[in-house]
Design goal:
15-stranded parallel beta sheet; plant defense; Rossmann fold; nucleotide-binding; alpha/beta; repeat; Apaf_helical; 29 strands
Length: about 900
């Protein structure tokens, strides 16, 4: 965990040296020394962290290193502030420090040299402390599984076939489908993978299958092995052989064999047999590959069951794999499981109503996680007093963690397996409120602004951050919330993981949560040392800000949109005291229409979020925010009037608001997202200079009477998403002009279209999502749309077509998965040939639609994906 903070500081130093090497002059050697020392710390911390739970001395030593890492970051940012405050007039653009000759003369390099010298003394004192308090001997004593807490946790997690709980509540649907796969007549060996978040019951479900009577009858021999993170292939092979019960060689003979010899022996013993292997708790796909060779495919219907937290391991473990994602329990299933554990019967017969009410409230908090329900039921099984139940209810996660070693272990092993970027990214999620639906796009922008993503050659930071996001989903640490247009739109974190993440983040002084409706996560009577703060349910006073760390890097608010108070004004008056801020997110707090000039003092700011805050005008001092990457001023009821200085924000990547006039963006070469501009304003831009634009949303202007042309958009060869919402009187010119936009994957058009081009499939070969609404097409669009080779989601909104019949040919829509048809009486019949739309899994029609559809489509459910044009337009 500390390694994440040290690694982060090390990368800041590396970037600082690269970017400002020429300007640092005589202190460059000191900065380089500091970087080298942080590198050595990084190596040592990784091994020391595993011992900190066993040794308070190691814990204190790691805490000192954390403070040094934070102070190193402060030295860098303080130096940049001194350069800015001493030399750059507020009306000028802030250039690179290395290019500013006046800066070299006026900035006193002695200050940064002095700060580094103080850090040097503290760093050089670390070996003395280590020797004085015998940290080396602590490290040596910590080696070996007998005294290593993580090793003990892993040992406690190790499962065996005889210790698995055989009575399972819930997952009947999964059990049925998995059992069918194990027992089917396919003679070739294949793998059944069960994956999901820790605590969902993967091992329990595998055990239920392993002990099923029909499974026992089918297979000649069965074996169970727990793999875990720190597996040893030689040991695994020995345990598998033992579990199968092969006895032609003694244990002593087997132990003398090398891995290859054990593989040959196991392979030979399984020849001609029908076998079942359960490989429980696999973390890396290499683990299965390390002993897969020993399992022959001899056409006897053999099976391998793998349980894992990783979606990647589940899907890529074998060429022939059936993957089953384990779901969370329903409330009824959770309540039945709780009653079994707490009351000894599934119906809570004879239990007083108040205990039932409290029990239901706590079970609801478990959010369908079986492990949490089981531990909760066991904890309350020997408590009969109402007061004790209330005490557990008020601090449910603390009680569960104290009662079961498996609860913290649920998080610790998964967390420790992450690299430092993923660790910081996951801990950051704990800033968001409980049960909060986190917008994925916003989260990506925040991670990039925080510096949690390390730049790689030929990869942009947003794509790298998305990779990290999907890796956390893959590892079952993040739950998917909603899906929109085939992509994850929102996510959330299970309450249990969030509570454990808050605890880890607080140990690092990473965050402080102030919730006046409940309580803050720290002592509000003293200055918080935390680097990031979140504000929930705000009131009039801002005393919490007075106890904030002056070195605060992030301030995020989560108030209700339209909350009527003057907190925004007070925060505006106070936030300039936090000159190191990188992220300022104050969405939803009404304020004056003009933002204070003081905002220009926050020169480190990379993310400024004032969504639905009614800010209409930006001050000219915005020019000082030369590191700003995201500017979110969107307000659904008001257009924004930005100053000319916005064109000088060279690092701006995402710009959100309703812009109809006076927007200069031609010089913003790094701009990736632009929402929302009028069509008239868009036509005034020199779009050739916006070559990095990936996402563009345009709103029709009532002032123009011309047809909307795509020739300006055609120059945006990297564009991936385009949405254009025209007035009903407006009309799109030919889509043929989008030929150069071959990267376009998401196209949403609201307005009349003259005609679809005959070679639409060549114009947009990579289009995955398409919306047409109010397009009033005269010809049936299906014969052209069905040729789009990559189309997966199609939404044909109201009045997309003025004809009566739709026809889809046998070879049409080969990849289409979701179809939404908003047709009522205007279209009468939809003819679909038998082999069309082979992958269709979601079909949506209006409830009162009289459209005649093929019989085979009547059983296709409505899609879970959200494809709502109006909702998306104001997201």
């Amino acid at each position: 965990m500390v390694d994440a903070i040290v690694s982060f500081a090390l990368n800041r130093l590396t970037d600082f040296l690269i970017q400002e090497a020429a300007f640092l002059g005589r202190v460059r050697k000191e900065v380089q020394w500091l970087k080298d020392e942080m590198g050595w710390m990084q190596c040592y911390v990784a091994s020391a962290e595993e011992k900190q739970n066993d040794d308070p001395i190691v814990r204190k030593w790691l805490n000192d290193i954390t403070k040094i890492a934070y102070d190193t970051e402060d030295v860098i940012d303080k130096f940049i502030l001194q350069v800015h405050d001493g030399n750059i007039p507020p009306t000028r653009c802030f250039p690179s420090m290395s290019s500013c000759v006046k800066c070299r003369k006026k900035v006193n390099l002695h200050d940064i040299g002095k700060d580094i010298e103080e850090l040097k003394i503290r760093i050089n004192d670390l070996p003395r402390v280590r020797e004085l308090y015998q940290l080396e001997s602590s490290r040596i004593k910590g080696e070996g599984s007998s005294s290593n807490s993580l090793a003990r946790l892993r040992e406690l997690r190790r499962t065996t076939s005889f210790s698995v709980e055989k009575k399972v509540i819930g997952h009947d649907d999964g059990t049925t489908s998995l059992l069918a796969k194990l027992l089917d007549l396919d003679r070739r060996r294949f793998v059944v993978s069960i994956y999901g978040m820790g605590g969902l019951g993967k091992t329990t479900l595998a055990g239920k299958l392993y002990h099923h009577l029909e499974v026992k009858r089918k297979f000649d021999c069965r074996a169970w092995v727990c793999v875990s993170q720190d597996y040893n292939t030689h040991d695994l092979l020995l345990r598998i052989i033992s579990s199968f019960g092969f006895t032609t060689k003694t244990t002593k003979e087997l132990k003398r064999m090398n891995e290859e010899g054990l593989e040959r022996y196991l392979h030979g013993s399984l020849q001609g047999r029908s076998y079942l292997l359960v490989a429980d708790d696999i973390w890396k796909k290499e683990a299965w590959l390390s002993f897969k060779r020993a399992f022959p495919d001899c056409n006897k219907g053999s099976r391998v069951i793998i349980t894992t937290r990783s979606q990647e391991v589940a899907e890529d473990s074998d060429q022939r794999t059936f993957v089953h994602k384990l779901r969370f329990l329903t409330f009824d299933e959770s309540w039945q499981l709780f009653c079994e554990k707490a009351f000894g019967n599934p119906n809570a017969n004879g239990v007083e109503e108040q205990l039932k009410t409290l029990g239901m409230e706590m079970v609801q908090k478990c959010r369908g996680l079986p492990l949490a329900v089981i531990v909760l039921g066991g904890l309350l099984s020997n408590k009969t007093q109402l007061a004790k139940w209330k005490a557990v209810r008020d601090h449910i996660w603390q009680h569960l963690k104290k009662d079961s070693i498996h609860i913290p272990n649920l998080f610790v092993l998964s967390f420790n397996d992450l690299n430092y970027q993923l660790k910081l990214s996951f801990l950051y999620l704990s800033l968001f409120p409980e049960d909060f639906e986190i917008k994925v796009n916003q989260l990506i922008q925040l991670w990039v602004a925080e510096g949690f993503v390390q730049q790689e050659e030929n990869r942009n930071m947003e794509d790298l951050a998305k990779d990290n996001f999907h890796e956390l989903i893959n590892r079952s640490l993040i739950q998917i919330g909603s899906v929109s247009w085939g992509r994850v739109a929102t996510c959330r974190v299970h309450d249990l993981l969030r509570e454990l993440a808050i605890e880890k983040a607080r140990e690092l002084n990473m965050l402080y949560i102030y919730d006046q409706m409940k309580h803050s996560t720290g002592n509000s009577s003293v200055i918080s040392p935390c680097r990031r703060e979140a504000l929930y349910s705000p009131k009039e006073n801002c005393l919490w800000l007075q106890q904030s760390n002056p070195s605060l890097r992030s301030l995020l608010s989560f108030g209700t949109y339209g909350y009527k108070c003057d907190i925004m004004t007070k925060i505006t008056d106070m936030y300039t005291g936090f000159r190191y801020l990188r992220v300022l997110k104050l969405d939803g707090f009404p304020t004056k229409q003009t933002l204070s000039e003081e905002i220009g003092k926050l020169i480190h700011l990379k993310y400024l979020g004032l969504r639905e805050s009614y800010v209409k005008h930006l001050p000219r001092s915005i020019i000082n925010l030369q590191r700003l990457q995201t500017l979110d001023l969107f307000c659904s009821s008001m257009e924004i009037v930005p100053p000319d200085e916005i064109s000088k924000l060279k690092e701006l990547r995402h710009l959100f608001g309703k812009f109809y006039v006076n927007l200069e963006i031609d010089s913003l070469r790094k701009l990736r997202s632009l929402k929302y501009v009028s069509s008239e304003l868009w036509n005034s831009f020199n779009t050739e200079k916006l070559g990095n634009l990936r996402e563009l949303w345009i709103e029709g202007s009532v002032k123009t009477t011309k047809k909307f042309r795509f020739d300006s958009i055609a120059k945006l060869e990297r564009l991936e998403q385009l949405a254009v919402n025209l007035d009903r009187k407006d009309c799109f010119a030919s889509l043929q002009q989008l030929t150069r936009c071959s990267n376009l994957m998401d196209l949403r058009l609201y307005g009349k279209i003259e005609k679809l081009p005959e070679d639409l499939h060549n114009v947009l070969p990579n289009l995955e999502c398409l919306l047409l609404r109010n397009s009033y097409l005269e010809d049936d669009p299906m014969p052209l749309l069905e040729k789009l080779p990559s189309l997966m989601i199609l939404h044909l909104g109201s009045e997309f077509y003025s004809g009566k019949n739709l026809f889809c040919s046998a070879h049409g829509f080969r990849r289409l998965e979701i179809l939404k048809l908003d047709v009522k009486d205007e279209v009468e019949e939809w003819q679909v040939e038998e082999e069309a739309m082979p992958r269709l899994r979601g079909l949506s029609l209006p409830e009162d639609s009289s459209l005649r559809i093929p019989e085979r489509f009547r059983s296709i459910p409505s899609p879970a994906d959200q494809c709502d044009f109006e909702r998306d337009w104001f997201e």
